[in-house]
From TrEMBL:
GO terms for biological process: cell division. Pfam families: Cu-oxidase (PF00394), Cu-oxidase_2 (PF07731), Cu-oxidase_3 (PF07732). The keyword Ribosomal protein does not apply. This is Multicopper oxidase CueO. InterPro entries: Cu-oxidase-like_N, Cu-oxidase_2nd, Cu-oxidase_C, Cu-oxidase_fam, Cu_oxidase_Cu_BS, Cupredoxin, TAT_signal. It comes from Actinacidiphila cocklensis. It catalyses: 4 Cu(+) + O2 + 4 H(+) = 4 Cu(2+) + 2 H2O. Its EC number is 1.16.3.4.
Amino acid sequence: MIKRRSLLLGGAVAATGAASATGAGVLLLSAPPSSAAAAVGIDPGSIAKYVLKMPVLPDLRPHGASITTDYYRMTMEEAYREVIPGFQTKVNTYNGHFPGPVINAWSGRRVVITQTNRLGVPTSVHLHGAHVPSSSDGGPMDLIAPGGGTKTYTYPNKQAHANLWFHDHAHHLESETVFRGLTGTYLLRDEVEARLGLPSGQYDIPLSVRDARFDDSGQFLFQMDDFFNRQVVLTNGKAWPYFEVAARKYRFRIFNTANLRSFQFALADNSPFTLIGTDGGLLAAPYTTQSVLLSPGERADIVIDFSRYPVGTELELRNIIPQAPGTPPDVSQVLQFRVTRTERDHSVVPAKLRTLPALPPATVERSFSLLMDESSPEPAWAYINGKEYDPDRVDTTIAYDTTEIWTVTNANKIAPHNFHIHLVQFRVLERNGVAVTEGAESGLKDTVFLRAGETVKLQATFTGYRGVYLYHCHLFDHASMGMMAQMEVV
């Protein structure tokens, strides 16, 4: 088991203040890396910015279909791709794609995926944010054997539209396999979303954003306690790419697929954009903002109107989280938009997007404390309610079809965490005792960020499927150190 105290202090962003999940006031990080550590590998400042074109993630087509079901095949395998200019990097892929392809699913229509693992380590595929049977949830001990093992996952899609993604969840391995590329996008659509007239087709673009580090030969350099040295920002598998746009509205679905790093996305000219959705799909109404904060695993659905810029404009999407002293500016740069043409635009962002499900009365309340050792010598430990993850233990028993309120507290003084619940989408009721009424946390969520000392109150209804599921910190290294627990819906 990999447990390191340095991971607690240097392996994630630590935030202070009570800034909303959409906005400012975030002060981050503890201490910069040593100069010796920073000197190993390719200097991020030497990597040319905005010379690689950002690819649009490819759609995966089903190999078969019936009246009710689409059937897919995926293979997890290694490949070489140009991630930074001039180098071929060995990456983990789904069907040869880094990051993985996009599955376009439809609410009410089942998807069946047969996964084959041709990597050298066991894997487990979790569809993050999905309402699925426990047998297809991709638990950390439900493994696909390396060297050609297979497993078939069934996704009933009995939920409304949502911005889902899939990734490895094999315990103690997921941090490295995800770092090396085992992520993909799963867009669940429905009629509610489709009839709104939002930007669609080639103007509806998923963005998979994360950080990385490379050795001198351009290969991924993975260390568990290496947050501060992961200073190369990747979007759709390319380091600091550019993306050509027309002077019209675009919809960008942003996925934070990093192991540990949070991003606060903003346009370089500080102009506003429209937040229309988050993890569990559209908000009730659009929300105008100048930035959105995403911790690992969270998603934001935004519309940027480039018609306000003349052709020839170059505009950065930036990460405006303040960095620790000594951190180079590279992690503040994400992506460059280039306005190259004009086009007609018939898309709209309506004043009302959807009606969110009503909040039924809650009959059970529970409390959860997230804590990591911050002062003890190595090795470090991580807990939920004072216990490390044990796959043979059920920590919480939940009666089927009940609604519960969970109060979740980050008990650390330095380290941030976030909190992800499998099976359900939840509502954030309060943050630090203040009711959530607008912005990114007003919609359906499955992952929520907690700065050191923060408390959030969540409400969820546990229905649809019985079985054993996880709740955990979605900073992968924290989960590897024990910050996971199991619930059983009975």
